């Protein structure tokens, strides 16, 4: 019979945790208000509040064991929030890249710029499509671009320790297409010259990218003439003239993508339909904002799964710590609990009191863990590893209020699980047995 009871409690606990994970914040606030009303207005609620106050007043006497719960949960929340902040920072960097009124055209079926190839003839057709904005001279605001992966020495590494950087060959309209991109040191590259401007993120990651320095890309030497800042994924790139880079990497007149400015965001459907209806083209079209947002989805999921997996493993350890602490606390207060039961206190107030005490410790631990994660990791600069098709992407950890709230929910869930079984034991302990203990 006891086995069936424990099994039922376990199943109910699993359901409760799933619901807790999915419930929005305003529902939780409403539940807290209702619970506070029950504590204040009902007879059993007042009993639970009275027992809780007695238990909380003895925490100083159990500071060592209580600290085990607080530190364990703080560690879980801190690590969880830090790992999730890494994914959030990566996603935000890519989500900020591009806009709704600029488009990127790739060869049909290409997942990324690096895997795309557009011929010169295709580029000329794309540049004349309906919906593209034009400058004061009537020229379409477009940029035929080439993206390749290049190797550069990593800053702070061994002399032969190299990383992959994304090298972008840009056309005449590249600067007008990205008004957020500003030169912060030096100048822009000159067309037809082996000159480079580097993003501030790339400059932090790789050695020798200061203006005036020469760097070797492949078999050729290039001069760094400027540094730019954009606040998005472009910060991790190195730019040069598209014709020069295409020649250096033997790409001829082809390009990997065409980036174009639309007359406005509403012109996207017109532009896409014009390209889809041209039999000379087999291309995919998307807004630059949507393109870069899609690039973040896979990596963000991996980072989130990694964070939740590590957090779950640590949470299991914290739950056992809470169980041990609260079982010991219940055993130490067995006679006190039995006395309360003997003078008329029901089992529900006792259960609620033990649960509230555990969740208070969990709340303190969650707050400490969240604050530490914010102080240490918010704004922390990191970069992804290079792959065969893309270079390293520099980004900053982003500890948002939603992540702190998620960490706090985890802390309270751990406290709930860690306090439930000791609370049930306290409520079910026979009064006569408890009075004989100690």
From TrEMBL:
InterPro entries, A to Z: ABC3_permease_C, Macrolide_Exporter_MacB
UniProt signal peptide: none
Membrane-spanning ranges: 12-41, 62-86, 305-330, 350-377, 407-427
Keyword match Membrane: yes
Residues of the ABC3 transporter permease C-terminal domain: 309-430
Pfam families given in the database record: FtsX
Superkingdom field: Bacteria
Record keywords, A-Z: Cell membrane, Membrane, Transmembrane, Transmembrane helix
Membrane topology per record: Multi-pass membrane protein
Compartments, record wording: Cell membrane
UniProt-recorded name of the protein: Membrane protein
């Amino acid at each position: 019979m006891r086995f069936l009871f424990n099994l039922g409690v376990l199943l109910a606990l699993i359901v409760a945790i799933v619901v807790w994970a999915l419930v929005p914040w305003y529902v939780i606030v409403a539940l807290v208000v209702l619970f506070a009303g029950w504590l204040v207005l009902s007879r059993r609620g007042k009993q639970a509040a009275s027992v809780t106050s007695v238990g909380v007043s003895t925490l100083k006497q159990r500071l060592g064991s209580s600290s085990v719960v607080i530190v364990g949960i703080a560690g879980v929340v801190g690590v969880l929030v830090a790992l999730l902040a890494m994914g959030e920072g990566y996603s935000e960097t890519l989500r900020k890249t591009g806009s709704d009124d600029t488009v990127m055209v790739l060869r049909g079926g290409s997942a990324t710029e690096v895997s795309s190839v557009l011929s010169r003839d295709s580029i000329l057709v794309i540049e004349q499509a309906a919906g593209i904005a034009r400058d004061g001279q009537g020229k379409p605001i477009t940029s035929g671009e080439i993206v390749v992966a290049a190797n550069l020495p990593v800053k702070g590494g061994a002399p032969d320790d190299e990383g992959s950087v994304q090298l972008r060959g840009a056309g005449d309209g590249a600067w007008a297409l990205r008004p957020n991109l500003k030169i912060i040191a030096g100048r822009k590259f000159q067309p037809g010259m082996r000159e480079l401007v580097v993003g501030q993120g790339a400059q932090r990651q790789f050695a020798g990218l200061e203006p005036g320095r020469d760097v070797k890309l492949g078999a050729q030497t290039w001069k760094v003439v400027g540094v730019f800042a954009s606040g998005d994924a472009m910060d991790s790139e190195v730019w040069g003239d598209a014709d020069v880079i295409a020649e250096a990497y033997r790409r001829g007149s082809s390009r990997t993508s065409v980036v174009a400015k639309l007359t406005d965001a509403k012109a996207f459907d017109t532009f896409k339909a014009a390209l889809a209806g041209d039999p000379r083209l087999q291309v995919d079209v998307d807004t630059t904002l949507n393109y870069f947002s899609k690039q973040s989805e896979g990596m963000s999921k991996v980072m989130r799964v990694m964070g939740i997996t590590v957090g779950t493993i640590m949470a299991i350890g914290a739950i056992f710590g809470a169980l041990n602490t609260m079982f010991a606390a219940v055993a130490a207060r067995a006679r006190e609990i039995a006395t309360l039961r003997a003078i008329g206190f029901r089992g529900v107030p006792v259960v609620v009191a033990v649960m509230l005490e555990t969740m208070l410790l969990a709340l303190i631990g969650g707050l400490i863990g969240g604050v530490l994660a914010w102080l240490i990791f918010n704004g922390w600069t990191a970069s992804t590893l290079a792959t065969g098709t893309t270079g390293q992407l520099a980004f900053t950890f982003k500890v948002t209020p939603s992540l702190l709230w998620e960490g706090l929910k985890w802390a309270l869930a751990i406290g709930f699980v860690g306090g439930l079984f000791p609370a049930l034991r306290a409520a079910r302990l026979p009064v006569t047995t408890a009075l004989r203990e100690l």
